[in-house]
Specification:
Layout: E1 2-8, E2 11-16, E3 25-35, H1 37-45, E4 54-55, E5 60-66, E6 79-82, E7 85-86, H2 92-95, E8 106-107, E9 116-120, H3 121-127, E10 128-131, H4 141-151, E11 159-163, H5 167-178, E12 182-186, H6 190-198, E13 203-204, E14 215-220, E15 234-242, H7 257-260, E16 265-268, H8 274-286, H9 288-292, E17 295-300, H10 304-313, E18 318-322
Parallel strand pairs: 11-12, 11-14, 12-13, 14-15, 15-16, 17-18
Antiparallel strand pairs: 1-2, 1-4, 3-5, 3-9, 3-18, 5-6, 6-10, 7-8
């Protein structure tokens, strides 16, 4: 089978490798996978969690082709969306309502830029979500689940300013708009700004942002050097969420006046729980048409160079890799 390997910063290599073992595993024929921000960051400058050679990718769906006979409720031929990890549900953090921080997670065994993916039974029993209507939109299940996990922490907010109108910022926007929330998205890229406007969003460049305190929550959907400059735009008692990733040793400066006298809460969000993932799959089912529009570019796995170049260019939303020539996705 074909597998796309990360070989170090700036290096990818498409290899032929053995198909995965079925003993003790469910095997899924991967149909399509999304290129995410973590994949791009790893490709450009490396990542402490991915030592080359490694297979990247964690946003995918496919068809179950092999499974142990004792697994019920799942049949060969079922279309499934794959959650790349799942919480244990019983540890102290899970009991506190922090499934995304569970320290006993189960995982897929490898990245999903492959034609066949083996999934340990322990994870398959909770991390495979059966779907009836397959399609490219399903590769958004994992990022949308992360969005839903973040919004769990902002349940009191009704008006949102989203900084960064890439894939993640757009997913926040689509979901919140569907719930009749007030949403404004700030985006620097002219291509993405035009796309967001065509999608019907109130989207503006940073230069057009006024300084009124109009928002219950500001979501920093992309990593930036000065996220706390937006504290002035939040209503008293509101929230600033750091959703974009920051490195361990990075330091930021804020004015504590907003924290103490205005009771602004600065919070973070990292990942999802399996309930979020299940909700994401359901949202994708209900709103297939609008989410499908987010897949702006799709390439054969053999054209991985073009796919990564397009994703890096930012003149796109979600870029996908199709694993097979003969499958409709």
């Amino acid at each position: 089978m074909k597998a796309l390997f990360y070989m170090g910063p700036g290096k990818l290599e498409l290899r032929k490798v053995k198909e995965p073992s079925t003993e003790g595993n469910v095997v899924v024929k991967v149909l399509e996978a999304g290129i995410c921000g973590t994949d791009i960051k790893t490709f450009l400058r490396g990542h402490h969690l991915f030592n080359p050679p490694a297979i990247l990718g964690h946003e995918c769906y496919g068809i179950v082709i092999k499974k142990p006979s004792f697994i019920k409720g799942m049949e060969i031929g079922d279309y499934v969306v794959i959650a790349p990890y799942g919480e244990c549900g019983t540890c102290e953090k899970c009991r506190r309502g922090l499934p995304e921080l569970c320290e006993k997670k189960t995982y897929i065994t490898d990245g999903c830029f492959v034609q066949y993916l083996q999934i340990p039974v322990e994870h398959a029993l909770k991390g495979l979500f059966k779907v009836e209507n397959p399609g490219s939109h399903l590769i958004l299940a994992e990022p949308l689940a992360c969005v839903l996990g973040a919004l769990r922490k902002l349940s009191k907010a009704r008006s949102f300013l989203i900084i960064g109108g890439g894939v993640m910022g757009s997913l926040f926007g689509i979901y919140l708009k569907s719930k009749n929330m007030k949403v404004r998205i700030v985006e620097l890229s002219e291509w993405r700004l035009s796309f967001l406007k065509r999608m019907g969003f109130d989207a503006i460049p940073p230069s057009s942002l006024t300084r009124e305190r109009n928002f219950d929550a500001v979501i920093i959907a992309s990593t930036m050097e000065d996220p706390f400059t937006y504290l002035d735009l939040i209503r008293d008692g509101g929230y600033l969420m750091l959703f974009g990733g920051y490195s361990k040793n990075e330091r930021l400066i804020l004015d504590p006046f907003h924290i103490h006298y205005r009771e602004i809460s600065v919070i973070g969000s990292f990942g999802y729980g399996l309930k979020d993932f299940a909700e994401a799959v359901e949202e994708l089912r209900k709103e297939k048409e609008i989410f499908s529009r987010m897949i702006t570019h799709s390439y054969r796995i053999d054209d991985y160079v073009k796919a990564f170049d397009k994703a890096i260019s930012k003149e796109c939303m979600k870029v996908s890799l199709r694993m097979w020539e003969d499958e409709k996705v």
